[in-house]
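EI: anyone free to look at a 580-residue chain?
SC: sure, send it
EI:
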Amino acid sequence: MFGKEFQRKYALTDQGVRNVKQGTFWTVIVNLLMMGGMGIMYKMMEQYMAVLTESAGLPKAAVFIPVVIAFAALSIFTHMQQYSATYGLVYGEVKTVRIGLAERLRKLPLGYFGKRDLADLTETIMGDVNRLEHVWSHCLSYLYGSYVSTAVIAGVMLIYNWRMAIACLWGVPVAFGLLFGSRKLEQRKAEITKAAGIRVADGIQETLENMREIRATNQESRFLKELNDKIDHHEKTMRSGELVTGIFVNAASVIMRLGVATTILVGTSMILSGRMDFMQLFMFLLAITRIYAPFDQALALIAEMLVSEVSANRLMEIYDAKTAEGADTFAPEGHDIVFDNVTFAYNDEQVLNGVSFTAKEGEVTALVGPSGSGKSTCARLAARLWDISGGSIRVGGVDIGTIDPEVLLTDYSMVFQDVVLFDDTVMENIRLGKHGATDEEVLAAAKAANCDEFALRLPDGYRTPIGENGAKLSGGERQRISIARALLKNAPIVLLDEATASLDVENETKVQGALSRLLEGKTVLVIAHRMRTVEAADRIVVLEDGRVAEEGPPAELMQKENGIFRRMTQLQRASAGWSL
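SC: here you go
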């Protein structure tokens, strides 16, 4: 009952399965104990009827007082155990699941996030886990516990009087059969509702992120109308899904409750025929109230449990995704980066095809080429942010595909075109480059990256908060913080992807000077569109259509009559009003 299929069906961890088993056990105990309470009530009623019919003395009822007290104490204890097993343990499980998801996402290659919508992932981590939490705590243990306890009680009832047992119980399997028969329809409705909700989240995120552009182009009305349409569609899908669920749940509840009517009808018939007395009918009526009671909550939530399988499938998609793993030690002989016949495809689109070159330690190797030629892709593959499709990338003779990415990245400093900053001070954003760095180390790196110019003008200098993703800073200022962060780390390999793209000529010259002084002796891989940025590089690798088209020192490539590098340099100089 609680095998691997069950575990995947509800996205449970091993501990989660143990929690459900424990919750089910205590639910069975509670249900059977409550049925025992009905037995005590039946005996008390029997005594009361004896008093009425035989004029017996009332003192006989006194024997039930200690029994009732013992029952109450035992009931409190078992209910507390059930609550702890079904709620307390589950809340701890939710924390474990969320941390596990975060750990899983941390180990996935960046290519995975390129294929998944971020709003979709956020909905999985928050919304889907919340939905499953409710199912784990409110439904699974109660439902499976009710199955077991009802089976035990049904067995006893069938032995005692099979006709009355059937009259009492026939509605339970029919009601649940109706609900489980509607599973595919309800799951389909849940998928539609989930997709509509994600579109709303996407629309809100897109509107907020592009508010400046929306206002600049006077598109507020169009975007708000589109967002309203998405919200209205989501509302309609929710209503439709809830209507379908409500119809089946209420129909199942009505069918199950019909068992009371059939119990009375069959019982009355058997009393009239002399095959049963009134007290036996009363006993079955008491029993049926306890049989239905455990299913009341489960029946209301059974539809949610069926729909939760959609959320569970979304979680399992993350768990099933292939992670980037490897050895936890990295001991290269030097830090030469060697691309050997590397191929890479992104979303079935071939990006690199047989790329081979070497970025030597102590040299600056520049990757240039037209947009879409694969320059940035090479930089990300060199740090194993993505995994290659074929060939190999080696650092110091070690295949990076065999090294755990976190271990590998300790030897890398990176500055990419898209700068990511946190809502913290300038100082702390730079300190991210090296955990535990002193203020003196941070300030030295900041000064080398030419951050003093703007940081010292801020109200609290380097201790000034810069807003979400550096909202209070210009693009060039944000990029200089990113460069300072990389300089602070002082790793033997440095990847610079359009690192100076947002700087003016004066600041670019200053940063380039700082880089040339502080990156001496390191393996430096530079990606740039502006040819003047890489004129001082030791080696140029020109990419075109995912292949190495040219390779060599800048001066050598400039001598090629029809060379790509020469042509790109001439075009950029001409556009800047220069002459060759």
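EI: The chain has a mean pLDDT of 82.
SC: 👍
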